[in-house]
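Whether sequence alone determines local backbone shape is best considered at the level of individual chains. When preparing material for the folding task, we compiled for one chain both its residues and its backbone structure tokens. The sequence in question and its structure tokens are set out directly beneath this paragraph.
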Amino acid sequence: MHFNLKSVFLLNPNTTTMKKILLLITLIFITTVSHSQSGAKMELKTDTVDYGTTNKNDDSGKRSFEFKNTGDAPLIIKNVKSTCGCTVPSWPKEPIAPGKTGVIEVKYNMSPGPIRKTITVQSNAVNYPDGVVALKLKGEVVKTEEVNILEKKKSLPNQ
């Protein structure tokens, strides 16, 4: 096979310098974009769970974050941490294959007051900076009114 160097675009003396520069920039851009899109990708259904207004007696405090690996490599969840000991996360320890789904479960202890917690997920997902994803819990736990049947009601007139 005979290869004529003059027929190559970049070496052709009839090609302007500007065209050569634009071609090189385009090639660099395409190479960079195609390289950055390979790997595991975590796509969450939602990154926030809203408990709403609830109470400890009616709610177990368990919630889940569902996700799918939309990348072309196995997704590895390295660690999941909460901001305090009142929230306990659990996550899949085995890699999630491309196209498959997984669940990160959290259990909040349902202490009365506002819920404002962050769960930090460390993974190999290329679509998040350094593979770190922040999940959020919000809502409010209210105290359940206790009724004492032995206590006189104040609204009844004295008899």
